[in-house]
């Protein structure tokens, strides 16, 4: 006999509420995916058109989607064509991640006689949006397997895991294959650096990018992380739908600003628009399963995430991005932060009643 309460998020009373929250995260992350696809397609077209014949041939040989675009004789300068090209680059990795995630979900559902875990597709979707375009398919399968297995199913599925499976899978890939975030991975056949890597190497001026362009997403990055504006829009949607706590987004940005006073070599207002910070703060930090339960705990978790992001970016040159590692550490501290928040409330109540 199956357990009707299996695979429910901890604060959801019914399966319908869990499915609704998952759907909200899909809808909220779609603008970020659209902007990322457009930025990627735009950069591929620009690199191909602006290169010499040898470099252009190298890009074409590495990107079969670009060859298909040329055969269809579509106007490569059109925004919708560039967005289509970006999604064509996204599709192989997404299909692999979806197949792997569904396979693990089916296996554990049948083994435990439980309903199919409802977040298998969302985990694959967010995992792929954290990756650059050139990650090999077998790496995607390996990272998704690690995230689904050790991040989700061994703990009982959605609502019971300690670390978001998408986050854990991406961190595993970066640790196991450090070249995942090297410059050749961002666009196959090119030597283009992402904006955060350029800023880390030579400062804001070296990126040849304005803050507005970085905020809107007119630069190279992982599939879903280029546009902080799209991530902000998605986060506001989640807050309005009450699928995520607004303290997480504000607290993470506050943590960046606080830590920048003593450590940052880059102005603090550049930090949220670089790398995957906006995406992870909007869609991973706010995961109802791993977010802090208490309001003070949410503030502490978010501020800790922001502080750790800036410290890792500034003090560890081997990890100039730093966001994923910072979020992993902050999430693992969640039980401690909730405990501190509860003890503080108890102590405050005792002092109030003692007067």
The assembly state of the depicted protein chains is single chain
The tally of strands reads 0
Total count of helical runs of at least 4 residues: 16
Low-confidence stretches: 1-9
Element string (H = helix, E = strand) = HHHHHHHHHHHHHHHH
How many individual domains?
1
How can the largest sheet be summarized?
Answer: none
The percent range for helix content is: 55-70%
N- to C-terminal distance: 55 Å
Outline: globular
Q: Structural class of the secondary structure composition?
A: mainly alpha
Strand content: under 5%
Task: Describe what this molecule looks like in 3D.
With 355 residues, this protein is mostly helical. The protein has one domain (15-344). Helix content is 65%, strand content 0%. It is built from 16 helices and no strands. It has helices at 15-50, 53-62, 64-72, 79-112, 120-129, 137-151, 165-176, 183-186, 195-202, 211-216, 228-241, 246-260, 277-283, 295-315, 323-332, 334-354. Helix 14 (295-315) runs antiparallel to helix 15 (323-332). The longest helix has 36 residues, at 15-50. The chain is globular and about 80 Å long.
Q: What is the topology?
A:
Layout: H1 15-50, H2 53-62, H3 64-72, H4 79-112, H5 120-129, H6 137-151, H7 165-176, H8 183-186, H9 195-202, H10 211-216, H11 228-241, H12 246-260, H13 277-283, H14 295-315, H15 323-332, H16 334-354
């Amino acid at each position: 006999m199956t357990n009707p309460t299996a695979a429910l998020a901890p604060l959801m009373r019914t399966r319908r509420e869990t499915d609704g929250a998952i759907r909200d995260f899909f809808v909220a992350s779609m603008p970020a995916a659209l902007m990322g696809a457009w930025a990627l397609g735009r950069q591929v077209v620009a690199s191909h058109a602006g290169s010499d014949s040898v470099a252009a041939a190298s890009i074409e040989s590495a990107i079969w989607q670009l060859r298909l675009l040329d055969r269809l004789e579509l106007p490569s300068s059109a925004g919708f064509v560039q967005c289509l090209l970006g999604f064509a680059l996204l599709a192989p990795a997404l299909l692999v991640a979806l197949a792997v995630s569904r396979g693990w979900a089916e296996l554990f559902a049948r083994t435990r006689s439980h309903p199919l875990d409802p977040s298998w597709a969302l985990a694959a979707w967010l995992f792929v949006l954290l990756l650059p375009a050139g990650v090999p398919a077998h790496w995607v399968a390996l990272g998704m397997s690690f995230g689904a297995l050790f991040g989700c199913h061994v703990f009982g599925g959605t609502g019971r895991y300690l670390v978001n499976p998408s986050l854990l899978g991406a961190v595993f890939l970066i640790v196991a294959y450090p070249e995942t975030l090297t410059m050749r991975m961002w666009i196959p056949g090119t030597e283009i650096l992402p904006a955060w890597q350029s800023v880390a190497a030579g400062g804001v001026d070296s990126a040849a990018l304005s803050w507005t362009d970085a905020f809107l997403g007119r630069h190279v990055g992982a599939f879903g992380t280029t546009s902080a504006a799209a991530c902000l829009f998605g986060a506001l949607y989640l807050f309005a739908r009450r699928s995520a706590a607004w303290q997480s987004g504000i607290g993470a940005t506050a943590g960046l600003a606080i830590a920048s006073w003593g450590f940052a070599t880059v102005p603090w207002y550049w930090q949220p628009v670089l790398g995957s910070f906006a995406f992870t703060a909007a869609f991973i930090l706010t995961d109802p399963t791993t977010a802090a339960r208490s309001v003070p705990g949410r503030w502490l978790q978010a501020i800790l995430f922001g502080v750790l992001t800036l410290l890792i970016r500034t003090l560890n040159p081997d990890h100039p991005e730093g966001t994923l590692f910072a979020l992993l550490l902050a999430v693992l501290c969640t039980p401690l932060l909730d405990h501190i928040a509860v003890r503080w409330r108890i102590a405050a109540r005792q002092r109030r009643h003692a007067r």
